Each structure stands twice: as C-alpha cells, then as structure tokens.
C-alpha cells in the first residue's frame, strides 16, 4: 500500500467515525436534555411527548432540548470547530425561486391544517402547540440529517442516489428506532429519500424542513 | 501483525478487564438497581470506560492513524457485542419488573420499559463507535502534539550541539 492510499483510507475511516458521532451523540444529548428539563420544570421524568399536558411543558421539555441538541450544537460544531460555512450546510441567503414558492405553499397548507385541527381536537394540547412542536421537530431532524450528516456523507459518497438511500435508512431506522420495522421500511425510508432528494435538488435546507413539517401535520390531521 | 500487537495493546485488554469487573458487579447487584442506575451501569459507564481506553491507547501508541481508528472501531464493536450478550443472558422479565419496582418512588409514579428493537441495538453499537472514535481523535491529537514537541526539542539540542 502506498502512502497516498494509506492517507485516503485513514481519512475515509475518520469521516465514517465523524458521521457516526453526528448520528449518535446528539441523540444522547437529546435524551439527557429531555430528562433533565422534564425533571427541572415538572418534577418528574417524562420522555414521552404524548404524555405532556400543556404548551409550556411541550415547549420546554421537548421542543427546546430537540432544537438545542439536534440543530444548534451540531451546527455550532460545524461552523466554529470544523470551519464550515452556513451556505454549504443549506442555509442559503437566496433559495431557488421554485423552492421558495413550494415552501410558501406548504406553509399555507400547514396553516389550514392547524385551523382544521383546532376544530377537530378535543385534547388538552392545542393545535397551535402541535404546530409549533412539529416545526421544532422538522427543523431539528432536517438540520442534523439533511444538513450536517448529509454534508459529511458527501465527503465519502459521490453517488447522489446512494447518498439519499443511506440518509433515508439513518432517518428511518436510527432516528425512529422505536417505531416498528415495517412502518419504517414502507413509510419513513421513502419519506427520508424524498426529503434527501429535495435537499439535493433545491440546494437549501428550507424545502426539506417545510416538507417534513407539512408531512407531520398531515399525518396528525388524518390520524 | 507483529507491528500491530506491541506492548501498548495491553491498554485495550485493561479496558476489557475493567468492563468485565463492572459487569460482574452489575450481575451481583441487578435487583438493587432502578431505571436511572440501570441506564448508567449498562450504557453510560461502559461508554466512558471505552472512551478512556481509546484516549489512553491513542495518545501513547506509536502507530499510524489508520491502525488507531480501526482498533477503536473493532474494540467498540467488541464492547457492544459483550454488552448485548450480557443483557440477553442476564436481563429477564423478573429482573425488569424488579427494576421498575425499585424506580417507583410514589404511588403516582408511572414507569415503563420496552423491549429493545433492532434500531435500538444499532443505536447502541453506533454510540460505542462514537465514544471510542472521539477518544481516538483526542488521543491522536495529543500524540501528535507530543511528537511535534519532541521534534522541536531535538532540533534545539542539535542547535546547541
């Protein structure tokens, strides 16, 4: 083996370890953050969002820890430690026109779904709380998967189809590991593929966020 | 192979030995654990042992980056295999019920534990690889700094010579 090959092999493995770190360490941070905030603000440990009773509890115990551990910290590491810029991570100043139009259209649909849910729901949690929480979920998951992890994966995978498939598998089987295998395979893998493809085609992170948010709201409205 | 297995490799065996001691301790105290201490003993402490072992090995071993990274991944896989086997053999329904009972601090407390899915097992393997990898990254950079310091010291000595 030549020196050049040795270097590329070690860089390749280094990149894989980095991806693994970006996949699993934010999840540990999320778990710890959710537990701690629920203990601090409600006095008992609650890691199930469905068991939350009001807007404040959902926001403080679930939405904030999610945004901090899956979005803010990984982005901060990318920007300040790995000296990456926001544009390359998908936070473009001027998104493509068609992407912008789709985002606006999806936002309008989400507003309509929220109004519909507000009339339909008879639970303690309001439709507005669900809407805000799902926005936090969409931002967090899309930033970690389609912005940070996808950016790191691009360094070792050049084929876009393979990139989308692997990203979709991580989305379905690692980030939704508590769901059953069949629903992950039949629903979340295709969804993850569409979101990854949207990220690559639009070259921004706003379109996948809008799609993910709309999907979550639609599933809640239908369910 | 001879190049791979030098004296420093004993650090990894030391890490495995510490893990074995911890598992023996857990095996004898399983019925006294609650959910939080169980998570700490089965998940967090082994990850810290792995991180420390990887860090120490990478900062002392005179090996290429590639060998250090591969060893970090292999040992992380070994650690997770040992822990998954331990859980499979030692954690029964009775033990889980006992842990849940120990976690009930009041009558209103609700505690539930679900069986791990395939995805959860993948997550635990990835977690160990991440901890081992981060230890290896930090250890390798410590080793690099140590080496560059040595080189500059030697250069100074040569100047005075």
Task: Tell me about this structure.
The complex is a heterodimer of chains A (223) and B (161). Chain A has 7 helices and no strands. Chain A has 223 residues and is mainly alpha-helical. Chain A has one domain. The radius of gyration of chain A is 18 Å and the shape is globular. The N and C termini of chain A lie far apart (57 Å). With 161 residues, chain B is an all-alpha fold. Chain B has one domain (5-159). In chain B, 78% of the residues lie in helices and 0% in strands. Chain B starts with 9 loop residues before the first helix and ends with a helix. The chains are: A mainly alpha (223), B mainly alpha (161).
Attribute tags:
heterodimer; A: 223 residues; mainly alpha; 78% helix; disordered N terminus; B: 161 residues; membrane (chain A); endopeptidase activity (chain A); transmembrane helix (chain A)
The proportion of residues forming helix of chain A, as a percent range, comes to: over 70%
Count of the separate structural domains of chain B: 1
**Percentage of residues assigned to helices of chain B:** over 70%
- Low-pLDDT sequence parts of chain B: none
Number of H/I helices of chain B:
5
Largest sheet of chain A: none
Q: Could you report the average pLDDT of chain B, rounded to the nearest whole number?
A: 85
Distance between the termini of chain B: 39 Å
Assign the structural class of chain A, choosing from mainly alpha, mainly beta, alpha/beta, alpha+beta, or little secondary structure: mainly alpha
Oligomer: heterodimer
Derived from helix and strand composition plus strand pairing, the structural class of chain B reads mainly alpha
Rg of chain A, Å, rounded? 18 Å
By DSSP, the count of extended strands of chain A is: 0
Spans of chain A with pLDDT under 50 lasting ≥5 residues?
1-6
Major sheet attributes of chain B: none
